[in-house]
Amino acid sequence: MMGAITASAVVSIKPALTQTAGSVLNCEIPVPGNHAAGGYIAADGTEVAADTPGAFPAAGRNFTGEEVLQAMNGRTLPGTSYDQSQAYVN
User: How many whole angstroms separate alpha carbon 57 and alpha carbon 90?
Assistant: First the structure.
């Protein structure tokens, strides 16, 4: 009887996990976040004032979860330089 309960739990949970993973990869991520609109991003990923040397302006677009995942694995975010992408990922 316990096997039947376990099997039904796996069947109902697995599609939910797949749907959750898919929605995370398709979500949109603003850079910088909405709480820091207009701010710049330093190389270490912190939010800084616009006149900070070496800081990057806002991306000008949102990135998808898939784009961010790829950037975390070594690619650059679309439309950014390597250093800018690293700052955004940080």
Answer: 14
- Residues 28-47 have pLDDT tens digits of 888 776 666 678 999 998 99
Q: What is the pTM of this model?
A: 0.68
Contacts of 30 (CB under 8 A, 6+ apart): 37, 59, 62
* Sign of the Cα pseudo-torsion (77, 80, 86, 89, in order): negative
Write the DSSP assignment of 3-65 as a string of letters: HHHHHHHHHHHHHHHHHHHHHHHH-EEESS-GGGTT-EE-TTS-EE-TT-TT-B---SSEEEH
Under the banding of pLDDT at 50, 70 and 90, the label for residue 75 is very high
Average pLDDT over all residues of the chain: 77
